Write a sequence for this structure.
Protein backbone atom coordinates (compact mmCIF):
# COMPACT_ATOMS: atom_id res chain seq x y z
CA UNK A 1 0.00 0.00 0.00
CA UNK A 2 1.07 3.57 -0.67
CA UNK A 3 0.20 6.37 1.75
CA UNK A 4 -1.05 9.51 0.04
CA UNK A 5 -1.11 12.93 1.72
CA UNK A 6 -2.54 16.18 0.42
CA UNK A 7 -4.51 19.26 1.33
CA UNK A 8 -7.79 20.76 0.19
CA UNK A 9 -8.38 24.51 -0.07
CA UNK A 10 -11.93 25.32 1.02
CA UNK A 11 -14.08 27.56 -1.16
CA UNK A 12 -15.28 29.31 2.00
CA UNK A 13 -13.45 29.32 5.34
CA UNK A 14 -15.24 28.11 8.46
CA UNK A 15 -15.00 29.47 11.99
CA UNK A 16 -14.10 27.09 14.78
CA UNK A 17 -12.44 27.12 18.18
CA UNK A 18 -8.71 26.77 18.64
CA UNK A 19 -9.21 23.65 20.76
CA UNK A 20 -9.68 21.54 17.63
CA UNK A 21 -6.57 22.80 15.86
CA UNK A 22 -4.43 19.81 14.84
CA UNK A 23 -7.45 17.50 15.24
CA UNK A 24 -7.67 14.35 13.11
CA UNK A 25 -10.97 12.68 12.21
CA UNK A 26 -11.86 9.66 10.12
CA UNK A 27 -14.38 9.62 7.29
CA UNK A 28 -15.20 7.78 4.07
CA UNK A 29 -15.00 9.32 0.62
CA UNK A 30 -16.54 7.11 -2.05
CA UNK A 31 -16.19 4.21 0.36
CA UNK A 32 -12.48 4.79 0.89
CA UNK A 33 -11.12 5.46 4.39
CA UNK A 34 -9.65 8.97 4.65
CA UNK A 35 -8.10 10.76 7.63
CA UNK A 36 -8.91 14.48 7.81
CA UNK A 37 -6.27 16.69 9.42
CA UNK A 38 -7.11 20.18 10.63
CA UNK A 39 -4.30 22.75 10.55
CA UNK A 40 -2.27 23.42 13.68
CA UNK A 41 -1.37 26.68 15.37
CA UNK A 42 1.78 28.19 13.90
CA UNK A 43 4.91 27.93 16.03
CA UNK A 44 6.30 31.18 14.60
CA UNK A 45 3.29 33.47 14.16
CA UNK A 46 0.54 33.63 16.82
CA UNK A 47 -2.02 34.76 14.22
CA UNK A 48 -1.43 32.10 11.58
CA UNK A 49 -2.32 28.45 11.11
CA UNK A 50 0.08 25.91 9.64
CA UNK A 51 -0.40 22.52 7.98
CA UNK A 52 -0.60 19.55 10.32
CA UNK A 53 2.29 17.90 8.48
CA UNK A 54 5.12 19.20 6.30
CA UNK A 55 4.08 19.87 2.71
CA UNK A 56 6.33 20.21 -0.36
CA UNK A 57 4.44 23.31 -1.47
CA UNK A 58 1.36 25.35 -0.69
CA UNK A 59 -0.58 27.75 -2.87
CA UNK A 60 -2.67 29.39 -0.22
CA UNK A 61 -3.32 30.10 3.42
CA UNK A 62 -4.23 27.47 5.97
CA UNK A 63 -6.16 29.90 8.10
CA UNK A 64 -5.77 32.44 10.84
CA UNK A 65 -6.34 33.07 14.52
CA UNK A 66 -9.17 35.56 15.00
CA UNK A 67 -9.15 36.04 18.77
CA UNK A 68 -6.94 35.48 21.81
CA UNK A 69 -7.82 34.76 25.43
CA UNK A 70 -5.11 35.06 28.03
CA UNK A 71 -2.53 35.38 25.29
CA UNK A 72 -3.58 32.10 23.68
CA UNK A 73 -5.57 31.41 20.53
CA UNK A 74 -9.30 31.16 21.22
CA UNK A 75 -11.04 31.11 17.83
CA UNK A 76 -9.66 30.34 14.39
CA UNK A 77 -10.75 30.42 10.77
CA UNK A 78 -9.81 27.33 8.74
CA UNK A 79 -9.00 27.87 5.07
CA UNK A 80 -7.39 24.52 4.14
CA UNK A 81 -7.52 21.01 5.56
CA UNK A 82 -5.08 18.15 5.13
CA UNK A 83 -5.90 14.53 4.41
CA UNK A 84 -4.22 11.14 4.12
CA UNK A 85 -5.31 7.80 2.74
CA UNK A 86 -3.76 4.58 1.49
CA UNK A 87 -4.06 3.11 -1.98
CA UNK A 88 -2.83 -0.04 -3.66
CA UNK A 89 0.77 0.34 -4.75
CA UNK A 90 0.24 -1.03 -8.27
CA UNK A 91 -1.22 2.28 -9.56
CA UNK A 92 -1.28 4.85 -6.73
CA UNK A 93 -1.53 7.90 -8.98
CA UNK A 94 -4.71 6.82 -10.73
CA UNK A 95 -6.44 5.65 -7.54
CA UNK A 96 -5.44 8.81 -5.69
CA UNK A 97 -6.82 10.92 -8.54
CA UNK A 98 -10.16 9.11 -8.32
CA UNK A 99 -10.48 10.00 -4.64
CA UNK A 100 -9.29 13.59 -5.06
CA UNK A 101 -11.90 14.17 -7.77
CA UNK A 102 -14.61 13.43 -5.18
CA UNK A 103 -13.42 16.04 -2.68
CA UNK A 104 -15.59 18.89 -3.99
CA UNK A 105 -18.77 16.82 -3.69
CA UNK A 106 -17.66 15.47 -0.31
CA UNK A 107 -17.03 18.93 1.10
CA UNK A 108 -20.28 20.31 -0.35
CA UNK A 109 -22.22 17.72 1.68
CA UNK A 110 -20.08 18.18 4.78
CA UNK A 111 -20.30 21.98 4.75
CA UNK A 112 -24.08 21.84 4.22
CA UNK A 113 -24.48 19.96 7.50
CA UNK A 114 -22.16 22.45 9.22
CA UNK A 115 -24.17 25.39 7.87
CA UNK A 116 -27.40 23.91 9.18
CA UNK A 117 -25.85 23.28 12.60
CA UNK A 118 -23.95 26.54 13.10
CA UNK A 119 -25.58 29.13 10.88
CA UNK A 120 -22.30 29.88 9.12
CA UNK A 121 -22.61 30.89 5.46
CA UNK A 122 -20.28 28.54 3.58
CA UNK A 123 -22.14 28.14 0.26
CA UNK A 124 -21.89 30.73 -2.47
CA UNK A 125 -25.62 31.08 -3.14
CA UNK A 126 -26.29 34.54 -4.55
CA UNK A 127 -23.70 37.16 -5.42
CA UNK A 128 -21.84 39.06 -2.75
CA UNK A 129 -18.89 41.34 -3.29
CA UNK A 130 -15.55 40.10 -1.98
CA UNK A 131 -14.11 42.49 0.56
CA UNK A 132 -10.57 43.66 -0.19
CA UNK A 133 -7.95 45.87 1.38
CA UNK A 134 -6.19 48.10 -1.12
CA UNK A 135 -6.87 48.33 -4.84
CA UNK A 136 -7.92 45.52 -7.12
CA UNK A 137 -5.84 47.16 -9.87
CA UNK A 138 -2.60 48.54 -8.36
CA UNK A 139 -0.67 51.29 -10.17
CA UNK A 140 2.79 52.80 -9.74
CA UNK A 141 4.91 55.59 -11.17
CA UNK A 142 7.83 54.69 -13.44
CA UNK A 143 11.06 56.62 -14.07
CA UNK A 144 11.93 57.66 -17.61
CA UNK A 145 14.60 54.98 -17.79
CA UNK A 146 12.10 52.33 -16.57
CA UNK A 147 14.52 51.14 -13.88
CA UNK A 148 12.60 52.39 -10.86
CA UNK A 149 9.06 52.70 -9.61
CA UNK A 150 7.06 54.21 -6.78
CA UNK A 151 3.81 52.55 -5.71
CA UNK A 152 0.78 54.81 -5.86
CA UNK A 153 -1.73 52.23 -4.68
CA UNK A 154 -1.16 48.90 -3.04
CA UNK A 155 -2.24 45.49 -4.38
CA UNK A 156 -5.37 44.13 -2.80
CA UNK A 157 -5.55 41.46 -0.15
CA UNK A 158 -8.78 39.50 0.10
CA UNK A 159 -10.25 39.50 3.60
CA UNK A 160 -12.68 37.14 5.31
CA UNK A 161 -16.15 38.57 5.78
CA UNK A 162 -17.06 37.56 9.32
CA UNK A 163 -20.53 39.15 9.15
CA UNK A 164 -22.69 38.64 12.23
CA UNK A 165 -21.69 36.34 15.06
CA UNK A 166 -21.89 32.66 14.22
CA UNK A 167 -21.61 29.46 16.19
CA UNK A 168 -18.19 27.88 15.90
CA UNK A 169 -17.83 24.49 14.29
CA UNK A 170 -16.83 22.14 17.12
CA UNK A 171 -15.51 18.61 17.30
CA UNK A 172 -18.96 17.10 17.82
CA UNK A 173 -20.78 18.65 14.88
CA UNK A 174 -17.76 18.23 12.60
CA UNK A 175 -17.50 14.55 13.52
CA UNK A 176 -21.27 14.14 13.05
CA UNK A 177 -21.13 15.79 9.62
CA UNK A 178 -18.24 13.57 8.51
CA UNK A 179 -20.07 10.47 9.77
CA UNK A 180 -23.22 11.38 7.84
CA UNK A 181 -21.31 12.04 4.63
CA UNK A 182 -19.42 8.76 5.09
CA UNK A 183 -22.74 6.95 4.62
CA UNK A 184 -23.67 9.29 1.74
CA UNK A 185 -26.30 11.13 3.79
CA UNK A 186 -27.08 14.63 2.51
CA UNK A 187 -29.34 17.15 4.27
CA UNK A 188 -33.05 16.85 3.35
CA UNK A 189 -34.14 19.19 0.56
CA UNK A 190 -36.18 21.37 2.91
CA UNK A 191 -33.11 22.02 5.07
CA UNK A 192 -31.00 22.72 1.99
CA UNK A 193 -33.54 25.33 0.89
CA UNK A 194 -33.37 26.94 4.34
CA UNK A 195 -29.59 27.00 3.99
CA UNK A 196 -29.87 28.60 0.55
CA UNK A 197 -32.35 31.19 1.82
CA UNK A 198 -29.99 32.27 4.59
CA UNK A 199 -27.14 32.58 2.11
CA UNK A 200 -29.30 34.65 -0.25
CA UNK A 201 -30.35 36.93 2.59
CA UNK A 202 -26.71 37.34 3.55
CA UNK A 203 -26.09 38.56 -0.01
CA UNK A 204 -29.03 40.98 0.24
CA UNK A 205 -31.35 38.98 -2.06
CA UNK A 206 -34.34 38.87 0.25
CA UNK A 207 -37.02 38.16 -2.35
CA UNK A 208 -35.21 35.06 -3.56
CA UNK A 209 -34.71 34.07 0.08
CA UNK A 210 -38.47 34.30 0.70
CA UNK A 211 -39.18 32.07 -2.31
CA UNK A 212 -36.79 29.42 -0.99
CA UNK A 213 -38.26 29.64 2.50
CA UNK A 214 -41.73 29.23 1.03
CA UNK A 215 -40.57 26.12 -0.84
CA UNK A 216 -38.94 24.72 2.29
CA UNK A 217 -42.11 25.35 4.29
CA UNK A 218 -44.24 23.77 1.57
CA UNK A 219 -42.15 20.59 1.63
CA UNK A 220 -42.46 20.53 5.41
CA UNK A 221 -46.22 21.11 5.43
CA UNK A 222 -46.82 18.46 2.75
CA UNK A 223 -44.66 15.96 4.65
CA UNK A 224 -46.65 16.59 7.82
CA UNK A 225 -49.92 16.53 5.90
CA UNK A 226 -49.26 13.13 4.34
CA UNK A 227 -48.39 11.73 7.76
CA UNK A 228 -51.49 13.26 9.35
CA UNK A 229 -53.74 12.08 6.51
CA UNK A 230 -52.51 8.54 7.06
CA UNK A 231 -53.79 8.82 10.62
CA UNK A 232 -57.07 10.69 10.29
CA UNK A 233 -58.42 10.91 6.73
CA UNK A 234 -60.29 8.22 4.77
CA UNK A 235 -58.41 6.76 1.79
CA UNK A 236 -60.77 8.26 -0.81
CA UNK A 237 -60.25 11.83 0.40
CA UNK A 238 -56.51 11.27 0.63
CA UNK A 239 -56.38 10.05 -2.99
CA UNK A 240 -58.26 13.13 -4.22
CA UNK A 241 -55.86 15.42 -2.36
CA UNK A 242 -52.89 13.55 -3.82
CA UNK A 243 -54.18 13.84 -7.40
CA UNK A 244 -54.88 17.54 -7.01
CA UNK A 245 -52.34 18.85 -4.51
CA UNK A 246 -53.45 21.91 -2.55
CA UNK A 247 -51.48 25.14 -2.46
CA UNK A 248 -49.24 25.92 0.51
CA UNK A 249 -51.98 27.90 2.23
CA UNK A 250 -54.60 25.25 1.54
CA UNK A 251 -52.29 22.47 2.72
CA UNK A 252 -51.63 24.32 5.98
CA UNK A 253 -55.37 24.80 6.49
CA UNK A 254 -56.15 21.13 5.78
CA UNK A 255 -53.38 20.11 8.16
CA UNK A 256 -54.89 22.18 10.94
CA UNK A 257 -58.40 20.88 10.19
CA UNK A 258 -57.06 17.31 10.30
CA UNK A 259 -56.07 17.84 13.92
CA UNK A 260 -52.43 18.89 13.64
CA UNK A 261 -52.05 21.84 15.96
CA UNK A 262 -48.30 22.46 16.01
CA UNK A 263 -47.85 24.95 13.16
CA UNK A 264 -46.68 28.42 14.27
CA UNK A 265 -49.67 30.66 15.01
CA UNK A 266 -48.34 33.28 12.59
CA UNK A 267 -47.41 30.80 9.85
CA UNK A 268 -49.94 32.18 7.37
CA UNK A 269 -48.85 35.81 7.72
CA UNK A 270 -45.14 35.04 8.15
CA UNK A 271 -44.74 32.60 5.27
CA UNK A 272 -47.82 32.01 3.12
CA UNK A 273 -48.87 35.61 2.56
CA UNK A 274 -45.41 37.08 2.04
CA UNK A 275 -44.36 34.22 -0.22
CA UNK A 276 -47.49 34.71 -2.34
CA UNK A 277 -46.89 38.46 -2.41
CA UNK A 278 -43.32 38.01 -3.62
CA UNK A 279 -44.27 35.47 -6.29
CA UNK A 280 -47.24 37.48 -7.59
CA UNK A 281 -45.32 40.75 -7.64
CA UNK A 282 -42.44 39.08 -9.45
CA UNK A 283 -44.88 37.87 -12.10
CA UNK A 284 -46.10 41.43 -12.46
CA UNK A 285 -42.50 42.69 -12.75
CA UNK A 286 -42.88 44.71 -9.58
CA UNK A 287 -39.84 46.00 -7.73
CA UNK A 288 -41.51 45.94 -4.32
CA UNK A 289 -38.91 45.02 -1.72
CA UNK A 290 -39.02 42.66 1.22
CA UNK A 291 -37.87 44.00 4.57
CA UNK A 292 -35.29 42.15 6.63
CA UNK A 293 -37.84 41.90 9.44
CA UNK A 294 -40.25 40.11 7.09
CA UNK A 295 -37.48 37.74 6.06
CA UNK A 296 -36.62 36.98 9.69
CA UNK A 297 -40.25 36.19 10.52
CA UNK A 298 -40.50 33.92 7.49
CA UNK A 299 -37.25 32.19 8.43
CA UNK A 300 -38.40 31.53 11.99
CA UNK A 301 -41.76 30.09 10.96
CA UNK A 302 -40.40 28.05 8.05
CA UNK A 303 -37.66 26.52 10.20
CA UNK A 304 -40.21 25.60 12.88
CA UNK A 305 -42.18 23.62 10.28
CA UNK A 306 -39.11 22.02 8.70
CA UNK A 307 -37.86 20.90 12.12
CA UNK A 308 -41.20 19.18 12.76
CA UNK A 309 -41.25 17.48 9.36
CA UNK A 310 -37.55 16.57 9.09
CA UNK A 311 -35.86 16.34 12.51
CA UNK A 312 -32.10 16.69 12.30
CA UNK A 313 -30.02 13.53 12.85
CA UNK A 314 -28.07 12.85 16.03
CA UNK A 315 -25.05 15.10 16.42
CA UNK A 316 -26.41 17.91 14.25
CA UNK A 317 -27.93 20.48 16.58
CA UNK A 318 -29.15 23.75 15.10
CA UNK A 319 -27.70 26.66 17.03
CA UNK A 320 -27.97 30.05 15.35
CA UNK A 321 -27.40 33.43 16.86
CA UNK A 322 -30.04 36.06 16.37
CA UNK A 323 -29.08 38.90 14.07
CA UNK A 324 -27.13 41.78 15.61
CA UNK A 325 -27.80 45.25 14.20
Amino acid sequence: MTKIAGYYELESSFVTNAAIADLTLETLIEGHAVTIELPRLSATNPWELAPARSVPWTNGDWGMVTSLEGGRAASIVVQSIGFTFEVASDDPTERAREIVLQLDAWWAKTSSWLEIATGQILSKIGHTTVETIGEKTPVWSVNDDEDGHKPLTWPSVTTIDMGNRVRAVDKDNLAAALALVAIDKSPPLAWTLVRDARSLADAGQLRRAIVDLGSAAEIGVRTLLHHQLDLTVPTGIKERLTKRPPTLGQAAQILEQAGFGSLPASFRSDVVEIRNRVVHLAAASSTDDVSYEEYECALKSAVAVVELASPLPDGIVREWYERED
User: Anything to note?
Assistant: The chain has two domains: 2-118, 189-309.
